Amino acid sequence: EVQLVESGGGLVQTGGSLRLSCTISGLNLKDYSIAWFRQAPGKEREGVSCLTIFNNTTLHKDTAKGRFTISRGNAENKNTVYLQMNSLRSEDTAVYYCAVDRPPVILAAMWGLKYEVDYWGKGTLVTVSS
Predict the structure, then answer these.
(1) For residues 53 and 34, is the Cβ–Cβ distance under 8 A?
(2) Over the stretch 96-114, which tens digit does the pLDDT of each residue have?
(3) Each residue of 40-70: b (16+ CB within 10 Å) or e?
């Protein structure tokens, strides 16, 4: 059974930092991409950042560029993907979801195309207060 478990969300002040974690079990990640999505109250879910394992490439949406970093854990934590979020703004408040699928599906979903991503976590809430 494939499981994705997010952690690390919480309440932070504007300008602060958080590191989200997504621990994935039941999959050999070498053929997959892992992405972070978020959904703010009253808004549609949007892609934030993604990491493709086989070539270790990352992509960030404009809202995340320069502030967020996506990375994979070291050899001991290779099934964990992190999202380091710095310089947080009130508009970053959302539930953040980890997702895994083949790279073309993740890339399409990141840019809002209607592709069904196979695996999702349950989300972790990030609240940025001013």
Answers:
(1) yes
(2) 999 999 999 999 999 988 7
(3) eeeeebbbbbbbbbeeeeebbbebbeeebbb
